[in-house]
Structures are given as structure tokens and as C-alpha cells.
Amino acid sequence: MVHGGDLAAARRLFPHASEPWIDLSTGINPVPYPLLPFDASVLHRLPSPADLARLKVAAAVAYGAPGPDHVAAAPGTQILIETLPRLRPRSRVAVIGPTYAEHAAAWGRAGHAVASVPDLAAAAGADIVVAVSPNNPDGRRFDPDALLQAIAPGGLAVLDQAFADLDPEEAPAAPFPGLVVLRSFGKTYGWAGLRLGFALAEPTLVRRLELALGPWAVSGPAIAAGCAALPDTDWRRAAAAARARDAARLDRMIARAGGRPVGGTCLFRTAAFADGPGLFRRLGEAGIFVRRFAEDPERLRFGLPPDKAAWCRLSRILR
């Protein structure tokens, strides 16, 4: 399965490209939270239950959960996407797509009957309905109440809000019966390599997730980072405004290059081009890696450049 961020693959495709590479193939905040150096103790000892409890309190406040017993912390949302299907009996699963491919793949690997459907109406009556909001790659948004109305009795709605933190149009969804919400720390705070994510759900499901993940699922450095960054609402507010300006700037550059906007979030923009494969090649030869889609080759997804030099290199190709 193809994902963004694989610069080794980019170098194989374009061995003579300009260096250093500019990786715009992910939707990770290119201006990370200013973490202070860790105390060495977080590397020397195993995280304690008290450490994890502090992280869950911080996450509950940041994401609007009723309390820490509604929060499961994990080493990234990907492991939660993989674990949830193993906790459910064989079900009919509707994944609203096109979207992040690992949702359908994980439910399929666990033996469920998975269908990719184009919209919420087509998902009606499924035991499990999965939606990403705002959606990757087109930015569509889904109301949690509508998801719950679509599922069969006793079913589960999975709402992946990995890109919601900095998006002013996306209201955070609090967990309630039948709904599990996934949140990503790494994308928002720019520290994807720390591997930290959360599931917000009813306490019974949270306990089952935590048992499945096992002890010490989240590392000491990730706990320290979450406890420092999650309460910093001023930083998150400023980052949301700055990334929205960046996204608007990227939209203007894409339009000048003849791109037709498809959608996105303030961390990435997706557009269709008359010659998408040709533009992908020109960008790659210039050492700029963007996300392409085998099922729709005219579309390209652009993350945000991290600095002035990267903006200038991208502008030269899109001019």
C-alpha cells in the first residue's frame, strides 16, 4: 500500500533530482510544536501509570472528552485503526471513500465484509460505518450524528478526525455510545515520528482497546510531548491561523498552474491537473515529492512547504 513520506521511493523514481528533497507528500504540520529537551529519565525508565494518567487528562481536555476514562492513548492512530476491527464480531463495514486506504485494509484483514461507498447514503444499514473528517484527500466533512443514524442497531461509527485540530470548520466530536473518534497528535504538532494518537470512546471500549494494546503502549518521550503540547491552546490557535494562510497561498499557486481544486485541509491541498502525471514528473525531477493517486492520476496532493526556500522552489515549478 502506497503512503506519503517515502523519500527512498522518490529517489528511486527520480535518481537525478535536485537535492535536498522537499517532501510535500504528507499532511504533517511542517512547523512543529517547540518541544523543550526531554529529561533523560523519560528514556531511562518505563512510563508509569501516573504518567499515562496525566496524558489522558490532557487529551480529554484538549479533545472535549467527558474525562480520561473516555481516552485510549496509543503509539499513533494507525495501531488503533488496526486494533478496532479485531474487537468486533464479523460485520458489514462501509468505508466512505476514497479515503485513507488503511481503514478498509484493516477491517478486511480482520475478516470483515468491507465495501467502499461514495457517500453516507450508500453506507446506510452497515454494521460499521467509517468516515474521515475532514477527509483525506478531498476534505469532505461528516457529521457524527449522521454517522450514528446510518449504522445498524448495535453497530459502530468510526470517525477519524486526524486532520481536525487545526481546521476551523471542523467541530471536534465528543465520544458517545456507538461512536469512536480517532485523533492524531503527530500531524497537528509536527512530531509524527513520536507516534502518538488517541481513541475517544465509551469507557468499556476504551478498556478493551487498552487491553489489546498491552502495557507501556505509549513511550515516555511521547507521553512527555503530549503533556507539554496538548494544553497549549495559544499555540494551537496561532498554528491554525498560520497554516490556513499557508493553505490559501498554496491554493493561489496551484490555480496559477492550472489546477482545479478538489479540496483538502489547512495541512494539505488536492487538485486535478490536465496533465497530472507530467506535473508529478516535473516536480520530482526538481526534487519535490507530492502525493499521486493510481486510481485518479490527474489528481495530486500537496502538503505545505516548510520554509521560504521550499516555497520558492515549488513556485518555480508551478509558475
Layout of secondary structure:
Elements: H1 7-13, E1 22-23, H2 41-44, H3 49-63, E2 71-74, H4 77-83, E3 92-96, H5 102-109, E4 113-117, H6 120-123, E5 128-132, H7 144-150, E6 156-160, E7 179-184, H8 185-189, E8 197-200, H9 203-213, H10 220-229, H11 233-256, E9 260-265, E10 268-272, H12 276-285, E11 288-289, E12 291-292, E13 299-303, H13 308-318
Parallel strand pairs: 1-11, 3-4, 3-5, 5-6, 6-7
Antiparallel strand pairs: 2-8, 7-8, 9-10, 10-13, 12-13
Beta content comes to 15-25%
**Percent helix range:** 25-40%
End-to-end Cα distance: 32 Å
Oligomer: single chain
Number of helices, where a helix is a run of at least 4 consecutive DSSP H or I residues? 13
Roughly what is the average pLDDT, rounded to an integer?
A: 95
Question: What pattern of helices and strands is seen along the backbone?
Answer: HEHHEHEHEHEHEEHEHHHEEHEEEH
Overall geometric form? globular
Low-confidence stretches: none
The count of β-strands is 13
User: In order across it, which strands form the biggest sheet?
Assistant: 2-8-7-6-5-3-4
Structural class, by secondary structure, is: alpha/beta
Radius of gyration: 20 Å
